[in-house]
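Predict the holo structure. Ligand: fe (ii) ion.
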Amino acid sequence: MSTTITSEQAALPTQAEPAHAAANWLTHLQGEVESHPGVNHLLLARLATGPYTRSDYRQFGLQHFALVGFFTTYMEQLLLRAPSSTEKLWLAKILVAEYGEGSDGRDHSTLYGEYLRSVGAAPGEEKSTPLCAEVWAFVGEHLRICREEPFLVGMGALGPGHEWAIPKMFHHIIPGLRRAGLDSSEMLYFDLHTEQDLDHAAWMTEVLQEMVSTDAQREEVIRGARLSLSARYHFWNGVERSIVAKRQPVSTEVVARGLHAIAGKREEVRSPGNLNDLRAAVERFKAGAPWPVPTLSNSPKGRNAARTPSPKQS
Ligand SMILES: [Fe+2]
């Protein structure tokens, strides 16, 4: 189940691709988002068609939950930097929906908690589970984008990079959840979020049409989308590794060499910390501290990791 990027693929510089031409640039960007490896990750294709169980989806959800809870934090950070009340109003409109309007007052984190219980996670397990480094990198990268990059880079990361991408990604996950036996009340988060994000995507498209008029502005939006989707690609790598580690607690090499009895279990997830640790790091970052874990942009190793296979290669 390896999703290792070959050196040939890694050499394809996704972020160095030219910005789309002015005419129909949003349509071209939509196509790029929909064909990006972060949105079409092999894990998602496997979830759509493979025999994954509630136990696998529990493992999936315990990693994914952290991203669900921090999206509003990114938006709040970006809202503070909106250049005028027009952009603030657009972002506030989406934020209100993300806080739970239209979901009987239950925000996305609450709905996701209900999903976690239905796949067997114990109350509070989402806070104590070690999170893989890619989760930390994803959150840190988006906080950095929303605080340090030009405003339109943030818009690209949260609009095309999230609101446009999520319905397509969830389109793979939802049939897998059905196959694992979840009913519609148990997977409400995924159905509802898909529906809502189709609205949010349309709102984001509208605001980008209004705000963006120059090549430089278009390039910023596109760069933000690409940064976000690169982080997403690596996030799915981490989730897949976490599922595999749970399913196969010893490596195939250990089994092949007959060392099962003496090797013990391999490390399930190499983790910088759990959700409580991550929340504390976010608060420290908001107070001005550096992000404690390498992200796709804050280390030479991370910058190499930011390269994802070209959409044409996926
Ligand atoms: Fe949304």
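The domain at 23-313 is CATH 1.20.910.10 (Heme Oxygenase; Chain A). The chain has a mean pLDDT of 84.
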